[in-house]
């Protein structure tokens, strides 16, 4: 298999139609430019063969508007036949034609959606031609065996041709094996031991065929060594990273190491959080012990209690003031009432006789007028002072009732204050009530924080008591600690590289165990069989040929001894 040419159009590096003759031997740097550009051309080859994803299309497409098409055409020589694959990246249409000297036939024409799924008709077709069809695997193998600054297009294409062309070579080796068997059988069918010329002809034919097979086997061994070198180069990139870890499943290895990293990180985070929680709890406990201890036994309603106590105190003072005022007024009322009674008695004793005497002097002994006037004056005095005394008494009774009520209110207020003070002693310190309220709020905040810290600590301890941290994490540490530096910053990238390299090794291993290597062993067996027949033939004519001193015999025997 040989990739002959590549034609690109609409690519960002090759907007105009550009043709690369890959079968010609030129200096890669002179012909195709710097290493990165050559890698772009190689990726374009893979894109034409196996397609681009949407992201890759956007990356390789020319967005400058120089070209309205975005296509690629690759020409491949397949054992005297030519395979043309043309891909339109805009429409995802692929056309493939297989041509020979006599005829040409289309092998595929249709759409090939790379992003759709793995069930792609084009890939099924191409598998009948190429041994590997996983674009990423091919890219990883081809690029992993060279240093970045040593990448050349010819070296990449050479490895690509080697990877893709195995099916064709297997077919070729099968034909060669069958031909070798046929030639071997034809050489010894009509063997005439008495005919020296015939024997020499057979000897020459056997020698030529054995030499041809020997060259073929050496060529196959060289190809085997190339694969082994590729595998060794990739393996050398893996082994320094993971030592000699026997890992049957690289994906399991990656998953378990990432699980180890995750569990380790979570455990470290939990331990750090627990330490912070414990330090914070100790600080808060010291704060309560040293500054807020007096608020520890206070009820949660202390803030409301102290406000209520202050309000009750204000009401009590008002009630007491009212009480003292009422008591003073009652006393004054008693004095005033007593004074009015004395005045009534005095006025009655003085005014009534005086009215009688005046009436007698004015009216004479007219008793019909004197007695009524005297009685009237007496009644007026009695009524006047009686009204005054009655008013004072009514006022007295009202104030006395208020006095009793006030006294009762004072008692109730004092009992309420006493009950609050018994439940929350600090309420009596009214002068510093605002300070107490603020400090009590601080105590409640500290207490709530303590509860949250306890709950958080319990959750973290519950997490750490899980089997994943108690059993699985120590198991992973024992299993991988000597192979992987879990603290490296590029751990995931490192594991991805390991996974890719491991996958490449698996693909190479698959190649090594394929039919091509079985055919190699078969060819070696045929060669041994031909050589044995040839030695047997020489033994038959040993005496006769040595008697004649045949140079051909001597040369042939030397070759046989050397190959043996």
Automatic annotation (TrEMBL):
Lineage top rank: taxon: Bacteria
Presence of the UniProt keyword Transmembrane in the record: yes
Bilayer-spanning residue ranges: 346-363, 369-386
Keywords (A to Z) from UniProt: Coiled coil, Membrane, Transmembrane, Transmembrane helix
Coiled-coil stretches: 203-237, 403-463
Record protein name field: Uncharacterized protein
Organism: Caldithrix abyssi
